[in-house]
Amino acid sequence: MSLDSNVISKETLIRSKVHEMILNGELVPGDKLPSENELAENYGAKRIDARNALVQLEKMGIVYGRQGVGRFVNEPLPAVEFLITGTTSFSEKMKEQGIPYESRVIYADYADDKEQVQYRKVLELNEDVKIFKVSRLRIVNGVPCAIHISYIREDMFPHIYEEKDNLTSVYTYFKTSGYEQLRSRDRILSAQFPTLEEMKLLTCSELVPLLVFETDTYDKETNDCLERVKILYRSDLFKHQLSDED
């Protein structure tokens, strides 16, 4: 599909053309990009348009700049092969592949008032049921790559506040609490750009899309819903596969 320079902006045209050169191998990691002046001249644009296009490519992690030297094609970050399932823990998936990882709890407390209302509705709970929120930062190969948020029914785990130091792996916590057979249901995939807080946690720019995976975790034996899960993955660090589950 060709780009019509009469319809799109010069900035978008330059960004897209440079990106296309990288994707098709005309420019490879380590190669120096044409200068802002060269790009502006080649595409009949102003220098500011070329500069803005290259800045956007930097924010996308595709190129990097060296002061006084120019911009170069970035080496792609290694992508982790990742099978999306709702009932296998992140740590188990990383162990299976022999990948160094860390799970860091960044929040373990009751959800705020807004989220209490939101997730009671999502989980179809009575107003007297409290929602306990656990957020973990997933770090792979030393790089923050995902934020895993669990919204857990307190009525199913009445001692969860006292046991919040044991929530590095929520699935392990569920199993030690007697829920050994788990399944996921109502899985949803979507995409969004990161908020300021998410950019800070994931050390990424606003132009790195996040893949959002949401699902509910059920106990197979009782068919009780235990939690709603929301995971935000850096899209540049994973190659996702989807699996069917019974």
From TrEMBL:
<dbReference type="GO" id="GO:0045892">
    <property type="term" value="P:negative regulation of DNA-templated transcription"/>
</dbReference>
<feature type="domain" description="HTH gntR-type">
    <location>
        <begin position="8"/>
        <end position="76"/>
    </location>
</feature>
<dbReference type="InterPro" id="IPR050679">
    <property type="entry name" value="Bact_HTH_transcr_reg"/>
</dbReference>
<keyword id="KW-0804">Transcription</keyword>
<dbReference type="Pfam" id="PF07702">
    <property type="entry name" value="UTRA"/>
</dbReference>
<dbReference type="InterPro" id="IPR028978">
    <property type="entry name" value="Chorismate_lyase_/UTRA_dom_sf"/>
</dbReference>
<dbReference type="InterPro" id="IPR036388">
    <property type="entry name" value="WH-like_DNA-bd_sf"/>
</dbReference>
<protein>
    <submittedName>
        <fullName>HTH-type transcriptional repressor YvoA</fullName>
    </submittedName>
</protein>
<dbReference type="InterPro" id="IPR036390">
    <property type="entry name" value="WH_DNA-bd_sf"/>
</dbReference>
<keyword id="KW-0238">DNA-binding</keyword>
<dbReference type="InterPro" id="IPR011663">
    <property type="entry name" value="UTRA"/>
</dbReference>
<dbReference type="InterPro" id="IPR000524">
    <property type="entry name" value="Tscrpt_reg_HTH_GntR"/>
</dbReference>
<dbReference type="GO" id="GO:0003677">
    <property type="term" value="F:DNA binding"/>
</dbReference>
<keyword id="KW-0805">Transcription regulation</keyword>
<dbReference type="Pfam" id="PF00392">
    <property type="entry name" value="GntR"/>
</dbReference>
<dbReference type="GO" id="GO:0003700">
    <property type="term" value="F:DNA-binding transcription factor activity"/>
</dbReference>
